[in-house]
Design brief:
Elements: H1 4-19, H2 22-31, H3 34-42, H4 46-55, H5 59-67, H6 71-79, H7 83-92, H8 95-104, H9 107-114, H10 119-130, H11 136-139, E1 146-148, H12 153-161, E2 171-175, E3 181-186, H13 187-192, H14 199-202, E4 210-211, H15 216-226, E5 230-234, E6 240-245, H16 246-264, H17 278-307, H18 313-317, H19 320-343, H20 352-381, H21 385-415, H22 424-450
Parallel strand pairs: 1-2, 4-5
Antiparallel strand pairs: 2-3, 5-6
Helix pairs in contact: 1-2, 3-5, 5-7, 8-10, 15-16, 17-22, 19-21, 19-22, 20-21, 21-22
């Protein structure tokens, strides 16, 4: 739901754009926070959005707004701004933000922007573009504050006063003469120590670091585990190369969460880039729908196979929707728990047996409860007590197996280097429909022959 004050701002911007009230609109935009302008732009029509960028004349404000946009909206905005102006905006950004935006720009258009970048900025960005996307090296900021270990507290304080152009200083990173990271110091520790003391005598030597090739997810785990505001990035020789601040990691976590949500629904996050192009949007959804279609065809074949072998098929068919729904839900629950555990680093992939066994135990408890419940209710729908026992045991078996498949499939996909989120809803549900029906009819056929 849109905040009431933000809704008022949105309506005012719309009215002023349509009236072409340039002066009034520029004054209004100057007072609105850049994050709110980004939000407003996402709720404007394509025509109004194109006009909006022309009314933001402050390049620094424009750079902040662009960084608050989604990747697709960033590209759309850049298309409406002159390349020279875009370069001016990029020059105002931190190197990590600049490299992120340049990675979004198609290769054929990249040269048009690069020729306007400042030489120093271009060198910094080229370093970051050298690292593989999704690694610590690709998202680190090279404009950081580091100081030699032989520096005194007084000298370090003076240096801090001159470092206003660098990334926000949360910690002082201490390096030796070879630029190797040897320690870290908080601002509080710096202030509380005598001016003549050397940093080498008061620094903390046990520093949590990220390597240039570490994946962003691993960096996020470091920051979460050690409650850091920033983390230094080092190379294989432990030389300090840059820092990653918590705000950059929050952006990654948010994007990752969105990606997982889309994947769990069997769609691609890129679909948002062509939400007004039905054919392309359909192409991103069709693959998993086809998998589901094929799976459900197998379910139909299973029903046909057992239809001619179970004399009480019509009685058993009454409870088929329960079996399919419960199996699918239990499997999805287990898969969601495992996927989240893997994403947050809570599950050790070298001890997956324990995780799977734990999910089976949970499935055992749920299967007993739901199975007994169905066993008690089934005789009320059908005339015999035996049918209650049969479907109750069958449902218990289906739930138990669903908890197993829901746990093991994401783990297998992770070990095969696939994203486990893509297996969640479409794949797990279809798999459990097939196995659930097979177990249901097999158990029922066996028990009907005995009872």
């Amino acid at each position: 739901m849109i905040d009431s004050s933000l809704k008022v701002k949105l309506e005012n911007v719309r009215k002023l754009i349509r009236r072409d009230a340039k002066t009034h609109l520029q004054n209004l935009l100057a007072k609105i926070h850049h994050a709110d302008i980004a939000f407003i732009s996402s709720h404007l029509s394509d025509i109004d959005r194109r006009k909006l960028w022309k009314y933001i004349t402050d390049n620094e404000k424009l750079s902040e707004v662009i960084l608050d946009l989604d990747d697709h909206d960033i590209l759309t905005a850049l298309e409406e701004i002159e390349p020279k102006t875009v370069a001016s905006i990029l020059n105002l950004m931190d190197s990590d933000d600049t490299s992120h935006i340049l990675r979004l720009i198609p290769a054929g258009q990249l040269e048009e922007y690069l020729k306007y970048l400042k030489k120093e900025e271009l060198l910094n960005v080229e370093k970051l573009l050298h690292y593989e996307e999704g690694t610590a090296g690709a998202i680190m900021n090279t404009a950081f504050f580091a100081i030699n270990c032989n520096t005194t507290v007084k000298e370090a304080t003076k240096s801090l006063h001159l470092a206003e152009h660098l990334e926000m200083v949360f910690y002082l990173y201490i390096v030796d003469d070879d630029n190797k990271l040897v320690g870290v110091l908080s601002l509080r520790q710096l202030i509380l120590n005598p001016p003549t003391r050397k940093l080498a005598d008061i620094m903390v030597q046990d520093v949590v670091t990220a390597n240039l090739v570490d994946e962003q997810e691993q960096v996020a785990n470091y920051i979460d585990k050690y409650d850091l505001l920033a983390i230094p990035v080092v190379d294989e020789h432990h030389r300090l190369c840059g820092i990653i601040t918590v705000d950059d990691i929050i952006d990654f976590i948010r994007d990752k969460a969105h990606e997982d949500i889309y994947n769990m629904a069997g769609i691609n996050q890129e679909e948002l880039q062509f939400s007004n192009k039905p054919i392309k949007a359909a192409k991103t959804r069709l693959p998993w729908l086809i998998v589901t279609f094929i799976g459900e065809m197998f379910s139909g074949l299973i029903i046909t196979f057992f239809q001619g072998r179970v004399t009480d098929f019509l009685i058993l068919a009454t409870f088929m929707p329960i079996i399919m729904a419960m199996g699918g839900n239990v499997g999805s629950q287990s898969a969601t728990v495992i996927i989240r555990g893997i994403a947050l680093g809570k599950i050790d992939m070298s001890h997956t047996g324990k995780v799977i066994f734990n999910e089976i135990k949970i499935g055992l408890i749920m299967g007993v409860v739901i199975g007994i419940l169905l066993a008690l209710i089934a005789p009320l729908l059908q005339s015999t007590r035996e049918i209650g026992l049969i479907v109750g045991i069958a449902l218990f078996s289906a739930i138990l197996f669903a908890s197993f498949t829901g746990a093991i499939v994401p783990i297998i996909l992770t070990k095969l280097k696939f994203d486990p989120a893509v297996a969640s809803t479409p794949f797990i549900s279809t798999l459990n429909d097939i196995t659930g029906l097979t177990i249901y009819f097999s158990v029922s056929l066996l028990l009907l022959s005995i009872l």
